[in-house]
Amino acid sequence: MTIQDEYRKKGWKNLPPGGIVDRPATALEYKTGTWRAFRPIRNKDKKICQNPEACLICWALCPDAAIKRVEPNELEFDMDYCKGCGVCALECPLKAIEMEQEE
Amino acid sequence: MAKAKTLGMMGDFAVAEAAKLCNPDVIAAYPITPQTIIVERLSEFVADGELECEYICVESEHSAMSACYGASATGARVYTATASQGLALMIEIVYITASARFPVVMTIANRALSGPINIHCDHSDAMLARDSGWIQLFAEDCQEAYDSTIQAFRIAEDKRVSLPVMNCLDGFVLSHSIEPVTTLPIEDEETLDGFLPIRDPLYKLDVDAPIAQGLLALPEFYMEIKRGQQEAHLKSLSVIKEVIQDFGDRWGRYYPVVEPYQMDDAEVAVMTIGSSTGTGKAAVDELRAEGKKVGLVKLRCYRPFPVKDIQAALKKAGAVGVCDRAVSFGSTGPVYADTAGAMVGRGGPLVKNFIIGLGGKDITIDTFRTMYDNLYADLAKGEIEEPVEWIGIRGE
Fold first, then answer.
1. How confident is the model at residue A51 (pLDDT cuts 50, 70, 90)?
2. Which residue, of B138, B291, B310, B353, has the fewest CB within 10 Å?
3. Is the CB of B213 less than 8 angstroms away from the CB of A8?
């Protein structure tokens, strides 16, 4: 159970004082991917960023660290945390990422 | 410092002596008139090795309160002081410190807010923070400012409270006036003979038991958290009374949250806050000698607002004038608004508002005579004609 689910069950009398959360790193449980209006997709015509030559610009610039290196040069979007800001698509020098409207 | 000593001390010196006695771990402060002498004095204590404490010289009051917030988060005992524009500048973090339930003791040497710019006393600065969640105490004289500082640490750090406390003393009238102040006869300075134990925080930053604090709380949680904060604040009143009692039992000086003066048979009464109480009591004595049954109620604790104590103190009077050294523009004085709210629908006295002493305008015995005269006139008519009267200003 996430900390949010746990605290949702508590009324004001039983929440911890001062608005604290009584354990660390719970932000990981907060899936900001639900905020997304656009999702990044790989441009199917351009395979380049799946190649060992990947430049890692998108990986370095993603403000939510939502682009993961699954292999040294293999990248994957982490859709739990990607807010769809589009920085990766804008910065990719090969235009290998496009933003697509969420349904 | 085993024996009690009675010394001539300015209010600011008295507060600095009291803060030193409480042995804060961290002081973060920025000088501003008329509070400057407090933090200047404390910095001298630190420089001279009389007080072992982390003294942080910050670049603004906003930073001062931010540092106090951070220091209190670690479980430290924290002190600061400010006034007027300084409080206005730090107000963002003032609110946040209370909502985090972090005890900090802050002295306010009450001074009018700009503009026009002014350095003299009124309560517009403290009233700016009345909704911030801090406990607010107002001192009548320098002795009370000294004693109240010591009580404030105990109240703030009590686990049932764990809230910051704002200790107000009137700028210049008390901060720069020399009065006899009797120090506490303390044997064990570590805990003030058991009155003020080492702080045991409600929660703190601790690498071995990490927590997350200072978080975002959206609609699902914000209102629940604020309701919890309100509960802690309302419940602090009983702890404040407990501390006042303990302090009095140990050292013989009692300062009730609401103090009635000659109220048993009072036909008309005023309610005061801060140093004007002393002048008001002198006016009561004079008028009583002339055969007029007048009384006074001193409000020492403004937040939490002691509704029941005020109802009990005022219920027998015929007409009551609430004195405010601040005004909520477009409305009334803030203490009046609270008091009228406490008295409404109870069939008690007529209640009206006097705005007095803004920006250091003198409050004299004649000021009180005027107010009592006006209250008698209202009482004779059986109704309040002018609910808010500004006393002591030039008209035409």
1. low
2. B291
3. no
Nearest CA to B81 among B112, B120, B111, B122?
B111
Report whether B90 contacts B62 (CB < 8 A). Answer: yes
pLDDT score recorded for residue A48: 55
Q: What is the pTM of this model?
A: 0.91
Tell me if B313 sits within 8 A of B258, measured CB to CB. Answer: yes
Higher pLDDT, A67 or A47: A67
B100 contacts A18? CB cut-off 8 A: yes
ipTM of the complex: 0.87
Among A12, A13, A23, A29, which would you mutate to test the B interface (most chain B Cβ atoms within 10 Å of its Cβ)? A12
CA of B99: which chain A residue's CA is closest?
Answer: A18
Whether the CB of A44 is below 8 Å from some CB of chain B: the reply is: no
What is the rounded distance in angstroms from the CA atom of residue B24 to the CA atom of residue B353?
Answer: 39
Alpha-carbon torsion, ordered B240, B184, B249, B133, to 10 deg: 0
Substitution target in A3, A9, A14, A20 with the highest count of B β-carbons within 10 Å is: A20
Last residue of a domain, one of B209, B232, B251: B251
Overall number of domains in chain B: 2
Q: Read off the pLDDT band of A50 (50, 70, 90).
A: low
Claim to verify: residue B45 and residue B165 sit in the same structural domain = yes
The domain of B242 spans 6-251
Question: CB under 8 Å to B133, separation ≥6 — which residues?
Answer: B95, B98, B99, B163, B164, B229, B233
> How many angstroms away from the CA of A53 is the closest CA of chain B?
40
Nearest to A17 among B202, B210, B217 (CB): B202
Which residues of chain A have a CB within 8 Å of the CB of B223?
12
Is A43:A98 a contact under the CB 8 Å cutoff?
yes
CATH of the domain at A96: 3.30.70.20
